[in-house]
Amino acid sequence: MDNISILQKYIDECHNIVFFGGAGVSTESGIKDFRSVDGLYNEKYDYPPETILSRTFFDNHPEEFYTFYKDKLNALNIEPNITHKFLKDLEDSGKLKAIVTQNIDGLHEKAGSKNVLLLHGTTYQNHCMKCHKSYSAEEVFNSKGIPKCSCGGIIKPDVVLYEEPLDDNVVTKTIKAISECELLIIAGTSLAVYPAASFIHYFRGKYLVIINKDSTSFDNAATLVIHDKLGNVFSKLKVD
């Protein structure tokens, strides 16, 4: 039996499935990931992306932060791909209980998925650091220079920057979902970002599946490993 057929068998058999995804889920929609050969970390900026996307840099250099942020993290005109759409259908079937994502692009929600746990926040929510007024992604991405609130405060995206903690409520829900599921599908992530990658240790179910172009440090622990593009895999799967 080939790998796709094995994965299809797992999906057909299980009624509590959790999907854990990283940047590779969105690359086929045209969003660059961070760590691959043509990812953001290999582009040339005055500062490394990891530095720019840190809380210290945001506080000290908001103008440079927003130049990078608006240029590289604007997904307003990006559409969901086959993986996002398959997961929406799987959720509609009642089998997929949660999507845990490291992505901030909002594509799972745009595809129609409801139970999305945003480990690193989202570009679609923003707030004034002074008065806490909310602002849309459109208002932030279409602003000139540093986006400012009507009260004069700087607007910050509700994304988890380097040096910032994850949201406790999201962490609790993520651990619960992963610890209770029968099938955990990990896709499009190198599993190199912590603490996000550490949540996999809570899995106690039947099948652990890893789908990624490159190998990961968790491959040896998986029931099934598929080294391929996500679109090639999810376009061949069916939801009953």
The residue-averaged pLDDT reads 93
Low-confidence stretches: none
Record field, number of beta strands: 9
Q: How much helicity do the residues have?
A: 25-40%
Rounded Rg: 18 Å
The CATH architecture of the domain at 1-31 and 80-120 and 165-240 can be given as: 3-Layer(aba) Sandwich
Largest beta sheet: what is the strand line-up? 3-2-1-7-8-9
Return the structural class: alpha/beta
Descriptive report:
38% of the residues are buried. The strands form two sheets. Strands 3-2-1-7-8-9 form a six-stranded parallel β-sheet, sandwiched between helices. A three-stranded antiparallel β-sheet has the order 5-4-6. The chain is α/β, with parallel strands linked by helices. It has helices at 3-13, 49-52, 55-60, 62-72, 82-92, 107-111, 137-141, 168-180, 230-234; strands spanning 17-21, 96-101, 116-118, 121-128, 134-135, 155-159, 183-187, 207-211, 224-226.
Q: Which secondary structure elements does this structure contain, and how are they paired or packed?
A:
Layout: H1 3-13, E1 17-21, H2 49-52, H3 55-60, H4 62-72, H5 82-92, E2 96-101, H6 107-111, E3 116-118, E4 121-128, E5 134-135, H7 137-141, E6 155-159, H8 168-180, E7 183-187, E8 207-211, E9 224-226, H9 230-234
Parallel strand pairs: 1-2, 1-7, 2-3, 7-8, 8-9
Antiparallel strand pairs: 4-5, 4-6
List its traits.
3-stranded antiparallel beta sheet; Rossmann fold; 240 residues
What can be said about this structure in brief?
With about 240 residues, the protein is of the alpha/beta class. It is built from 9 helices and 9 strands. The two termini are about 20 Å apart.
